[in-house]
Amino acid sequence: MNFALIGATGGTGRAFIDQALAAGHSVTALARTPAKLQALADKIEIVPADARDPESLKKALAGSFDAVVCIVGASGLLEARKVTDLYSTTARNLGQAMNAVGLSRLILVSSSGVEPQENDNWFYVHILKRFFLQPMYDDMLRMEAGVKAGTLDYTIVRPPYLTSGAAKGQYRVSTTGNFKDDKTLTRADLAHFLLRAATDPAPFNRLTVALSE
């Protein structure tokens, strides 16, 4: 299968590329700064595209792709404070571009943090979320609502706090809401599920999926 990937420079993106290639798939990375991916130029196709520019997305997606995987996101707490429309704008532009070129399958990453959870601690709720993460979460909710209102065959993925390390392969999957005992998840396991949803879309089509160890 052939996948278009947005967000290839992050840890989850790199893990997705490694796992997809190991399984015999092809990956085309859409990157605003293609030079950052030159180390992978002999393994994947790299095309310039800006998530905030629908015309560049339309041009980059004018090929034969089985699914588009979007892992765009902020890097770090300070960047998260500045994210007020990145997710919603990216999703809107992707929807327009995919409809224009006849693509329908979209897997995109949100966060379990968009909804309050029973095991949220005081520091997370009153410091991290209130002063750093809330603008990003609000934008993610707008992204989710926009995608659900559209016609694409989407899967929205809500991972918990992501960690480094190898895939453990024992994560939980929920299609009925976030886990009450939300735990962490490795980026490699998130990538594993994204590949799973891309290759076998039927069980997760037009659903929001929560993940956790």
Total DSSP helices:
6
Poorly predicted spans: none
Strand order of the largest sheet: 3-2-1-4-5-6-10-8
Terminus-to-terminus distance: 28 Å
Helix content: 25-40%
The total of beta strands comes to 10
Order of helices and strands: EHEEHEHHEHEEEEHE
User: The biggest beta sheet, please?
Assistant: 8 strands, mixed
Assign the structural class, choosing from mainly alpha, mainly beta, alpha/beta, alpha+beta, or little secondary structure. Answer: alpha/beta
- Roughly what fraction of the amino acids lie in strands? 15-25%
| Radius of gyration from the alpha-carbon trace, in angstroms | 16 Å
Give the averaged pLDDT, no decimals.
91
Q: Which word captures the global form?
A: globular
Explain what this protein looks like in three dimensions.
- There is one protein chain.
- By secondary structure, the protein is α/β, with parallel strands linked by helices.
- It contains six helices and ten strands, in the order βαββαβααβαββββαβ.
- The chain has helices spanning 11-22, 54-60, 77-82, 86-101, 122-149, 187-199, and strands spanning 2-6, 26-31, 45-48, 67-70, 105-109, 153-158, 162-163, 172-174, 185-186, 207-212.
- It has an eight-stranded mixed sheet with strand order 3-2-1-4-5-6-10-8, sandwiched between helices.
- β1 (2-6), α1 and β2 (26-31) form a beta-alpha-beta unit.
- The protein is globular.
- The two termini are 28 Å apart.
- The model has no long low-confidence stretch (mean pLDDT 91).
Task: Please outline the helices and strands.
Layout (H helix, E strand, L loop, with lengths): L1 E5 L4 H12 L3 E6 L13 E4 L5 H7 L6 E4 L6 H6 L3 H16 L3 E5 L12 H28 L3 E6 L3 E2 L8 E3 L10 E2 H13 L7 E6 L1
Parallel strand pairs: 1-2, 1-4, 2-3, 4-5, 5-6, 6-10, 7-9
Antiparallel strand pairs: 8-10
Helix pairs in contact: 1-6, 2-4, 4-5
